[in-house]
Amino acid sequence: MIRIILADDHPIVREGLHTLLETQPDFEVIAECKNGEEALRATAQLQPDMLLLDLEMPVKDGVETMRLLSQRPQRPRVIIFTAFDDDERIIHALQAGADGYLLKEAPREEIFNSIRITMNGGSMLQPIVASKLLRHVGQQKNTPARPANTLPPVEDLTERELEVLLLLAQGMPNKEIASHLIISERTAKFHVSSIMSKLGATNRTEAVAMAAQRGLINLGDS
After folding, report:
1. Of 31, 155, 204, 209, which has the fewest CB atoms closer than 10 Å, so is most exposed?
2. Are 62 and 36 in contact (CB under 8 A)?
3. Please, what CATH class does the domain formed by 139-221 belong to?
4. 48 to 106, 144, 181: CA distances (angstroms)
């Protein structure tokens, strides 16, 4: 059972999402919060597995709430669930430590799937969100010292690391990667860490975006 807290300042959104999530036998909504301050208190008291967090809320917004959660020794997995799809909000949310980013227009099956994948240690972004993140990474990596279409060199990925990267792009957590490739979970974790190090990425999501920019994978096919 995945225990979930909803944080959104619109009651109708909370109620609708609550009803939708509880159609699934493995989801349990244990609290609803109308702002970030309530979400922080509820997560401390109830220790949920998952927090679905809106960005625009009174008292404390989603990004500030996410940053404060990230300072705690233990925190739930967090998916930003919002109507905003502009680049700056997406980047700030992911930099603050969000595990996923969903738009409120997402189909119900995509919402269900994202929660389950994120809960299992994966990271899943909608195509529109992934493309915006990819564009941001490209802008960050380009500097006046080199042509705009040239990226700094990176250490080559091994054949096994490329296999892991493809599965990483599908949102698979280490355990599923290990099972798929018939290797230990510890080995899978080692490969993921090596990929991030070689690409200069700070997290799994950024590693996928940077790999796509270099042509190592195609986000449209992942």
Report:
1. 155
2. yes
3. mainly alpha
4. 23, 46, 31
% residues pLDDT > 70 (the chain): 82
Which residues of the chain form CATH 3.40.50.2300?
Answer: 2-132
Q: Return the axis-axis angle of helices 159-169 and 174-181, rounded to nearest 10°.
A: 130
Tens-place pLDDT, residues 133-186: 555 555 555 544 444 444 556 678 888 888 898 888 887 888 889 998 988 888
160, burial (CB in 10 Å: exposed 0-12, middle 13-18, buried 19+): middle
In the chain, list all ranges with CATH 1.10.10.10.
139-221
- CATH code of 2-132, in short, is 3.40.50.2300
Q: For residue 25, give the amino acid letter.
A: P
* pLDDT tens string 28-60: 999 999 999 999 999 999 999 999 999 989 889
